[in-house]
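Quick note —
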Amino acid sequence: MRNTVRLEISSPEMIERYGCSWVLRRQRIDCHRWPRAGDKLTVVTAPTGFEKSFQTFRDFHLFDENGKSLATATTQWLFMNVESRRLQAIPADIARIKEHLAPAAAHLPRPTSKIPEPTHPTAATSSEVAFYQLDFNDHLTNPVFPELMLEPLGHDFLYAHLPTSADIMFQREARYGDRVLAQVGPEAGDLHFGHALLRADTPLATMRTEWVER
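Predicted structure written out below.
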C-alpha cells in the first residue's frame, strides 16, 4: 500500500480520481522457508508491467536479514468501476509509472493456466461473511478467501503441515452476510490440493496448494 501511495496510484486515489479501484485477480505465492518469531524481514515490491490495457502486475519478495529469499508472490490486478462493478481500461496517465517497474530480468513467472474447481471434493465447510472480514470497499477482503478455502483441510492436517505454494484465482466478490461454501479435494501429486469457495453453485475463487510435513 505504501508503494502505491508513493506512486500516487493507490485505490483511494483511484476512487477519487476515476471512480475506480484496483481488484486482485490472481496471486501465486511460493514459500521457500517460513520465518520464525523474532526474525527481521524485508519486503520488496514493485509493479512489473501492463497487459491488454486493463491489467497490471506486481511482484513481492520477502527476505531475511541476510538477504536470502524466504518467499515470493506475483499478482495480477484489474481496474474496476466501484459503482457499476465493471472493468475499465487503465487510464493512460497511469502508464507514467513504467519508469518505476522492476527490471525485466527480475520479474517472477506469471501463471497463465486457469484453476478449476476440485474434481473430487472430499471435505467442505460453510460460513457466513462477517463484518471483520470486509475491506475498505465493503467486500470480503482478499486474504480471507484462502483462509476460508484452507479450513476444510482440518486442524490435524494444518497443524502438521506447511504450505510451500498457493495459486489463487479470484473470480467474484462476496458481501456481508453471504453464505459461502469452501471445498477441498486431492490433486495429482502428494500433498497437492484443489480448493474452491462457492456462493450457492457460483465459484467466488479457486486455488491450488502444495504442502510439506512440518
